[in-house]
Amino acid sequence: MTYVYAGAAVHVPAPPEQVFALITDWPRHREWMFMTEARRVGEHAVEAYTGVRPFGFLDTMTITTWQPPTLVLVTHTGRFVRGHGAIRIRPQDGGSRVIWAERLRLPFGPLGRALWPLVRPVSLALLRHSLRKLSGLLVPET
């Protein structure tokens, strides 16, 4: 089974508590996560739809670690996206550093492995874009 890694980080001008609150406000994901709507569907479950209906995919996740305000770990359990994701928040220079990392099993078997070198740069660009949008939504508390 082949897994791939993608990750990105950004400095956010807000304290970890404020960043964690926005990141885990699942309905607000549409404001910063590229073409994605998310919702909590149980005490330890989240669903995220990425795309423009009907063209997209559902990403189901189980929250495996919840440590406010520093860490959320998920296991992706959907048909298309499977693997593990992490969002870590650390205090840094008058704000926070947000690190988003994914270790995912590629879909489509050998075709997915062959396409990954082309898909990876796009995936990384979308991660960085989403984190920059997240940063723009947060302002320091006064």
TrEMBL record:
Pfam family membership, one: Polyketide_cyc2
Protein name (database record): Carbon monoxide dehydrogenase subunit G
Biological classification of the source: Bacteria, Bacillati, Actinomycetota, Actinomycetes, Streptosporangiales
